[in-house]
Amino acid sequence: MPGGIDPHTHLAMEALRTESIDDFFSGQAAALAGGTTMHIDFVIPVNGSLSAGFKAYERKAKNSCMDYGFHMTITKWDEVVAEEMEIMVKEKGINSFKFFMAYKGILMVNDELLLEGFKRCKSLGALAMVHAENGDAVFEGQKRMIELGITGPEGHALSRPPVLEGEATSRAIRLASFVNVPLYVVHLMSIDAMEEIAKARKSGQRVIGEPVVSGLILDDSGLWAPDFVTAAKYVMSPPIRASGHNKALQAALSSGVLQLVGTDHCAFTSTQKSFGIDDFRKIPNGVNAIHFLILLMMEKQWMHLVWHTMVESGKISPTNYVRLTSTECARIFNIYPRKGATLAGSDADIIILDPNSSFEITTRSHHSRLDTNVFEGMKGKGKVEVTIAGGRIVWENDQLKVVPGSGKYIEMPPFSYLFDGIEKADAKYLSSLHAPVKRFNSAT
After folding, report:
1. Which residues does UniProt assign to the signal peptide (predicted)?
2. Cα separation of 189 and 187, whole Å?
3. Is residue 309 part of a domain?
């Protein structure tokens, strides 16, 4: 089948005065071993500058061993940012921009900036992406937990419940509808957010929902572990939810409400996580997953296999499995059929998977630099035996064959299929206004 495409990673990302442990070589090596042959990472601007951020990430990616692309994050708004967005799209091959509705005082944007960003994305044919949590309410929730004396990792989840993810998702969807721009909601973790996307898509709105493997496979029980190191490794935002949310997200994938799967790989060591041993607000947010985009799509909560329960049972077909892990991502980010297909003229990114081969997930074998693993001990069937990237065998017989610098930057053009018909919809809206009305003053 085509190699996996991970639409959501954070390699060598700076956060809370530290940097995620996997860089563009170690993280990519782990991905290739798991059957992922391309990923799209999020560029963080430098002091608000998109150009400076892009240059910084070019340097970070110089030792890449796998093909990659970039999303760009927007953290402030002025005319310079608006002009730089055009440069990113037309000259740098970036066709998506992410807006954080959380992380107050750090990355969070307000609704005014969100609207300006949405309008600019629409004019450039770039996809607007949102991290959907109500940042103001999360900030209040964090204060509430601290006042209650809840300072451990469980406080992280308690301070930002599903209702805040649902509210922000709903708000982003409505603002995107107001502008008439396609919207992509990253790392969907809750029933609350999923239902907002289902409602919007049913009405015909162009909204993409991206669950991540941790939200599909795990529940929040690990956050209550008595050992801090164990509990802290599960801290991410939005949080891993209570049991039930994961099953609902799996059902939404199988029914087409959600369209693709990412990992949100942003790995921090146990030492880095310990920065917040006395205050959950200081725990770097993120879990490992890039190695498991393909493997974990075949697992279900508590070591049951999605492959067995969903493909074998007929709930989803092998074709839909490929769509969720590869093809739809390539279409959304406008690189299909170069990626996401095994066709003449496509890049030769191919994996060979044995559905009867067993695997066990351990820290010892995940190829990441991380010393912990949120999926530790999970077993199942369905193992990637061979990974071919760009026509080169890079994973075979449980051995990696990668060379630093062999990865290519993949430029992604604007105006994907999600923009088809946008102009006609705008014209129909304008014609429906029946305004301005020509009036006369009856008093004269």
Report:
1. none
2. 6
3. yes
> If you ran DSSP here, which 8-state letter would residue 97 be given?
E
Q: Cβ–Cβ contacts within 10 Å for residue 417, how many? A: 12
Closest residue by Cα to residue 343 from 2, 37, 66:
2
The number of residues making up the chain comes to 444
Using alpha carbons, list the distances in angstroms from residue 409 to 8, 41, 66, 89, 161: 16, 11, 9, 14, 37
* Beta carbons of 142 and 281 less than 8 angstroms apart: yes
CA distances from 156 to 129, 143, 265 (A): 23, 11, 18
Please give the angle made by the CA atoms of 93, 99 and 105, to the nearest 5 degrees. 130
> What is the signed CA dihedral for 229, 231, 236, 239, rounded to 10 degrees?
-170
Domain count, the chain: 1
Q: Which domain holds residue 171?
A: 4-407
What's the DSSP call for residue 419?
Answer: G
Q: Which residues contact 321 (CB under 8 A, 6 or more apart)?
A: 1, 297, 307, 311
Q: For position 267, what pLDDT does the model report? A: 60
Say if 15 falls within a structural domain: yes
113 SS3 class: helix
CA gap 88, 92 in Å, rounded: 5
φ, ψ dihedrals at 357, nearest 5°: -85, 135
Q: Give dist(CA 145, CA 185) in Å, integer.
A: 27
Instruction: Encode pLDDT of 171-192 as tens digits.
Output: 999 999 999 999 999 999 999 9
Rounded to whole angstroms, the Cα distance separating 12 from 68 reads 14
7-32 residue pLDDT tens:
999 897 775 565 556 789 988 988 89
Q: State the CB neighbour count (10 A cutoff) for residue 84.
A: 22
- pLDDT number for residue 6: 92
Instruction: Name the residue among 186, 246, 258, 254 with its Cα closest to residue 217.
Output: 246
What CATH number does residue 277 fall under? Answer: 3.20.20.140
Residues of the chain with pLDDT under 50: 288-309, 366-370
* pLDDT number for residue 27: 85
- Tell me, what's the pLDDT at 223? 94
**Is residue 214 situated within a structural domain?**
yes
Model pLDDT, residue 308:
42
